[in-house]
Automatic annotation (TrEMBL):
Family to which this protein belongs: Belongs to the PA-PLA1 family.
Protein name per UniProt: DDHD domain-containing protein
Domain WWE: residue ranges: 70-152
Species of the source: Oncorhynchus mykiss
Coiled coil region boundaries: none
Length: 787
């Protein structure tokens, strides 16, 4: 199809002139020609000339096969087509058009009808995107992503090799709709529409409309004449195509979750970004809420959980710190692809153990989480729910170190009272005085930096704080200030400039959108203007982080709490997380390597009272936490039930055969009855080992009575058969939770090892465990759907 008519047809063109020909066997002077001689409306305003009543012979390939279909009864009265809004997404170097939900489409349609000449911004997809209606562009709100085209769709086409229907450009759809309206109104079919670009559309009847491409637009590799004239099927309205229109999301948000990725830019086996993986996890949670919390939704007690991605990889690599350039200079030229993969992913582990780049990583994660939290509360001022955090792989270790080094304050209201102080925390990485950024005099700032001996030098040239902020390294060198103090002063200047920008209270919206104060005193909410402020702020932030990675000072001391990385200036979060979930986490290994052999059972995070360590049994990166707390007990991890209930069948059979074999060994003479009981009874999730002197038959009744509670309450049940204290890191509850491997994975655990480390984003069992923990605290009952 020519440019402007295909899926990429967003380019503006002059209104095409369409030639309409009658392909029926009626006389030349048809009712259509008597009523509208040589005219057909195109855009609702301009008539199109060159409408001819000449009868043409059609090729057998175009109409003869449709004669039986053409025998239709009297057509129905014309009804205007109902438009539906779509957006374009780039997938595997191809443009794919996806529909908005019906609720979002209706909001966009209503905004278009009331917009007038002014631009209107409509929040869609759970308010994670903003659509500029007149511009027909969709912008991401919470993450960096280029704008995507939006289209108001009414007519669609699909070729023989296409997997889904594609929408026509809006102007082309308008032409088809007007031709269709005349054909229906006058009962005139078998009309041929020739477009100047070469496309031909034939309206055989209301249910059969075909489009033919000119030969010049065909694939040059196609040689068969029959293939060159192969038509495309044309459909009117979204209800006549097989489009999977997503369900709208509930407006009420019950809980907010930030998800931090691990090493590298890709997060799963398909090399997708953290944004795409979190989108899948969010979709799985919405589906599970509809199946496992249906009653709560019907009663209005369950809304949804919002999951937002936190990306720190881009701040460390590329132009953010310059480390990629340094690594590339020393990288060998051989096996370039493998070395590139290593530099882009595995080196993140070494960067985190480097005090310089560890400071950059924790600063980026904390500032990104705080920024997203502030932006979310700005867009959802009615939100009163709690906030949790999720970390995958190395991301879980970053969050663990951050939460270990949080300071307990007097509440969020007191923290929000002084915005400048919070910015100092993010910049200086400490929540304690002294902080030179809050000083108003040069002498005071130099004293807090330990550079008071250089005060006389600076005062000799009449420098104060404001004039010092305009100095560069050359100026300080000319004054005779040594390299060490010079670097401290330059770092102070950059931080102070960054702090002054933050004090302005600017709220960042989508890329290209910036919130500005409303000039009206009656309206406290900001209005939206369009510009490039966010990109400029991002560039300044990258320069700041790059300078920080070079000048950050490190003190190799361990923290008083006994758990944590080497002494880094850890930033403070702007909220107290309710729960910390770790996916495939190496926390246990890193703590052991740091020399920590045991976690005090009474230890808790200063600002977070709940912690879950979730892992796949074949995950090569995951390690347990509970043995570091309860070292004297061989405690099995809690088994996460399948989201459809109970265990997977192959695990039930495996454990049943294992128990039967144990019974046969313990009691050969009287084992048949006991073995049969162990084979047929339902297994218990996270079954503990049998106590000495106790048979499985004696525990059968106890386990049968408890299994219902165990299946319906993943994440809250204690170890059966004995009360085991696993410390206060999760409020006295179990910490380690293991997923059930799939049947195919059990054949070769080595083959699926890498995949098992990346499986959490699409794991419905994992998503259900999070929802169970969240809604248990809200007093909403969990429902196991009947199979």
């Amino acid at each position: 199809m020519s440019e402007g008519l295909g899926p990429e047809g967003g380019h503006s063109q002059p209104a095409p002139t369409i030639t309409v020909q009658d392909l029926s066997d009626r006389p030349a002077h048809t009712p259509l020609e008597r009523i509208t001689p040589a005219h057909t409306l195109l855009d609702g305003n301009t008539p199109v000339e060159q409408v001819s009543g000449v009868v043409e012979e059609t090729s057998p390939s175009s109409t003869s096969s449709f004669e039986l279909v053409d025998m239709e009864p009297a057509p129905p009265l014309y009804q205007p087509v109902q438009p539906h809004w779509f957006y374009c997404r780039r997938v595997d170097s191809k443009d794919v058009w996806l529909p908005f939900s019906r609720e979002d489409s209706e909001r966009l349609e209503q905004a278009l009808s009331t917009a007038g000449e002014e631009e209107v911004v409509v929040a869609v997809e759970g308010e994670r995107y903003d659509v500029r209606v007149r511009e027909r562009q969709r912008y991401a709100v919470y993450w960096e992503q280029g704008p995507s085209e939006v289209r108001r769709c009414t007519w669609f086409y699909k070729g023989d090799k296409d997997t889904r229907y594609m929408p026509y450009p809006e102007e082309f759809s308008t032409n088809l709709e007007e031709a269709y309206m005349i054909a229906v109104t006058l009962d005139e079919w078998k009309r041929k529409l020739d477009f100047p670009s070469g496309e031909t559309v034939i309206l055989h009847n209301p249910k059969l409309i075909m489009q033919y491409q000119p030969i010049s637009l065909q694939d040059e590799w196609v040689s068969s004449p029959s293939e060159q004239t192969r038509p495309r099927t044309v459909k009117r309205g979204v209800d006549n195509i097989t489009a999977e229109i997503p369900d709208g999301e509930p407006e009420t948000i019950d809980h907010l979750v930030f998800m931090v990725h691990g090493i590298g830019p890709a997060c799963d086996i398909r090399f997708r970004s953290i944004i795409q993986c979190v989108n899948d996890f969010r979709s799985a949670s919405l589906s599970l809420l509809g199946s496992h919390y249906r009653r709560g939704q019907e009663e209005g007690r369950v809304g949804r959980v919002e999951f937002l991605p936190v990306n720190w990889h881009s701040a460390l690599h590329g132009d953010a710190t310059g480390v990629d350039e340094d690594i590339q200079r020393i990288t060998l030229p051989s096996i370039s692809r493998l070395r590139h993969f290593t530099n882009d992913t595995l080196l993140d582990l070494f960067f985190y153990n480097s005090p310089t780049y560890c400071q950059t990583i924790v600063d980026t994660v904390a500032s990104e989480v705080n920024k997203l939290h502030s932006l979310f509360k700005h867009r959802h001022p009615e939100f009163t729910g709690a906030v949790s955090v999720v970390g995958h792989s190395l991301g879980s270790l970053i969050l663990f170190d951050l939460l270990t080094n949080q300071k307990t304050g007097s509440g969020e209201a007191d923290r929000d009272e002084d915005t400048a102080h919070l910015l100092c925390v993010c910049l200086c990485g400490r929540n304690r005085d002294p902080c030179p950024l809050t000083c108003d005099a040069l002498e005071q700032a130099l004293c807090k930096m330990g550079l008071q001996e250089h005060l006389a030098t600076l005062q000799s040239v009449d420098l104060d704080l404001d004039s010092l902020a305009m100095c560069d390294e050359t100026d300080l060198t000319e004054l005779g200030i040594p390299l060490g103090p010079r670097k401290k002063i330059l770092s102070f200047i950059r931080k102070r400039h960054f702090l002054q920008e933050g004090r302005q209270g600017t709220v960042l919206l989508a890329p290209g959108l910036q919130a500005l104060p409303d000039p009206s005193e009656d309206s406290p909410s900001p209005t939206v203007s369009f510009g490039n402020q966010s990109s400029e702020a991002s560039a300044r932030r990258q320069q700041f982080l790059r300078a920080q990675s070079i000048t950050s000072a490190v003190d190799y001391e361990y923290f008083d709490v006994g758990i944590g990385q080497v002494s880094i200036n850890y930033p403070q979060l702007a909220f107290h997380p309710q729960t910390f979930f770790a996916f495939g986490s190496p926390i246990g290994m890193f703590l052991t390597v740091r020399g920590l052999k045991r976690i005090d059972p009474n230890y808790t995070f200063p600002t977070c009272k709940n912690f879950y360590n979730i892992y796949h049994p074949f995950d090569p990166v995951a390690y347990r936490i509970e043995p570091m707390i309860v070292s004297e007990s061989d405690l099995e991890p809690m088994l996460i039930p399948h989201h459809k209930g109970r265990k997977r069948m192959h695990l039930e059979l495996k454990e049943s055969l294992t128990r039967m074999s144990t019974d046969l060994k313990n009691n050969v003479l009287g084992s048949f009855r006991t073995a049969w009981q162990s084979l047929v009874r339902m297994p218990v999730a996270a079954l503990p080992p049998v106590e000495d002197g106790e048979t499985t038959a004696e525990r059968s009744l106890q386990e049968t009575e408890s299994v219902h509670e165990e299946v319906e309450s993943p994440g809250s049940a204690e170890d059966k058969g004995r009360q085991v204290k696993v410390g206060m890191l999760n409020g006295g509850r179990r910490i380690d939770y293991v997923l059930q491997e799939a049947p195919i994975e059990s054949f070769n655990e080595y083959l699926f090892a890498i995949q098992s480390h990346l499986c959490y984003w699409e794991s419905e069992d994992t998503a259900l465990l999070l929802l169970k923990e969240i809604y248990d605290k809200l007093g909403v009952a969990f429902e196991q759907p009947q199979q």
